[in-house]
Amino acid sequence: MHNQMSWIRISRTIAFTMQSPNRLPRIASIVAFLLAGTIVLEGLLGPIVVLPFALIPFCAGVGIWRNKVWSAYGFATYLIAQFLLVPVILLRPGSSTGRVLQIVATGLCSLGLGALYLFAGRSLAASGARRGRAWPWIVVSALIFVPFLFVQNFEIPSESMENTLLPGDRILAQMFPLRPPARGQLILFLSPRDRGQILIKRVIAVPGDRLRIADKVVILNGKTLDEKYLTHEAGPETFYPEDFPNDVELPDCAEGNEMLSRHVSNGEIVVPAQSYFVLGDWRENSLDSRCWGFVSSSEVVGKPLMIYESIDRPTDEASRPNEDLLGRRRWARLFKIL
After folding, report:
1. What SS3 state is found at 110?
2. Which of 200, 219, 239, 321 is at a distance of 20 to 30 A from 28, taking alpha carbons?
3. pTM of the prediction?
4. Is domain 152-337 annotated with CATH 2.10.109.10?
5. CB hemisphere CA count around 5 (13 angstroms)
6. How many angstroms separate the CA atoms of 15 and 22, rounded?
7. Which residues neighbour 320 within 8 Å (Cβ) at sequence distance 6 or greater?
8. Distance between CA atoms of residues 317 and 330, nearest Å
């Protein structure tokens, strides 16, 4: 009985709040300020690039507090645009179950908050508040929505691409449209061993190229490849012979070895159509085409564009949620073009 009475009181409070022409906008304004503070905290402890986004809810809160209708409607538009991105992100390859649940929960939260600000806007309009300007909010919403149709963010979890990419680097990658990658280009592709995982390596050879490795040096189409990006140090994956191709049966690489053996001619690998031969920049610490064979063009999903954030932390923590301190940020790597 006590619980029933409590729920009745809560329901009456919510109903009174929704009916009040002034109270709902005030609540919406306070919520906007709290969202701005949350984003600031997230930017200080995690990706610093999110800090400018705190201005959006802050401006919405100020505008609503000053009784501007489109400050509420505009922020609602911004939040609903974020919700509309959910299916776009979910349809992209490489989303794990945990990530899907997080994306859906975030999208539903954005939709719920969007509804709050729509009601707040209606309340302000009914009270005769100033309309304000609509176009800045429409522009901001479009600038948030449209780019994410073409790009996606990733975090580097391993050391296989050092020193080009370090564990803890966060990158933006172009997902659409994609052109056939060129030699030397970094690409994102579906892991041959786990289709739910996305890997990043460097394209060494494209269809029709002839390739071999002699004393760790790549010979491409009869010429020594100049690889200034290379790192040569002993690593956990150091089981590759110095010459390639060869007759060595590498552990857990049987399927790739069989694939590659069908494309050996005169001691060289000949890359077939619609395929790419990829390697990590840290050759001794990279599982790549030497182990699992060619990457099909249909498996290529993106092209890295830039490092937008870099956190120096152990490799086994690189994919965990943000628990980073400001002092661990690699400032020199911010906004580095790839």
Report:
1. helix
2. 321
3. 0.80
4. yes
5. 2
6. 13
7. none
8. 16
**Residue in this structure with the two tokens 């490092």, named with its chain if needed:** 307
- The predicted pLDDT at position 321 comes to 45
Domain ranges of the chain: 2-149, 152-337
Q: Are 170 and 308 in contact (CB under 8 A)?
A: yes
Length, in residues, of the chain: 338
Structure tokens at 159: 């050391």
C-alpha 105/C-alpha 24 separation (Å) is 24
First-to-last alpha carbon distance for the chain, in angstroms, is 64
State residue 315 phi and psi, 5-degree precision: -55, -40
Which pair of structure tokens corresponds to residue 97?
């179950």
Helix, strand or coil for residue 231?
Answer: strand
Q: What is the pLDDT of residue 6?
A: 46
**Identity of residue 265:** S
Q: Are 335 and 306 in contact (CB under 8 A)?
A: yes
CA nearest neighbour of 132 among 63, 54, 30: 63
- How does strand 264-265 pair with strand 300-310? unpaired
Strands 151-155, 275-279: pairing is unpaired
SS3 label, residue 245: coil
The residues, ordered by sequence, that sit 6+ positions from 138 with a Cβ below 8 Å of its Cβ are: 74, 77
Structure tokens at 320: 């965990």
Other CB atoms within 10 Å distance of the CB of residue 300: 18
What pLDDT shows up at residue 281? 94
Looking at residue 5, its amino acid is M
User: Could you identify the residue written with the tokens 């429409």?
Assistant: 138
- Give one DSSP letter per residue of 147-173, joined into a string: GGGTEEEEE--SSTTTTTS-TTEEEEE
Please state, in angstroms and as integers, the Cα–Cα distance from residue 310 to each residue in 137, 155, 236, 303, following that order: 31, 9, 23, 18
Averages of pLDDT over runs of 10 residues in the chain (338 residues) are 46 46 87 95 84 95 94 95 88 68 88 94 92 93 89 89 91 92 95 86 96 93 92 70 85 87 92 96 90 94 93 59 58 90
* Nearest Cα to Cα of residue 29 among 104, 129, 103: 129
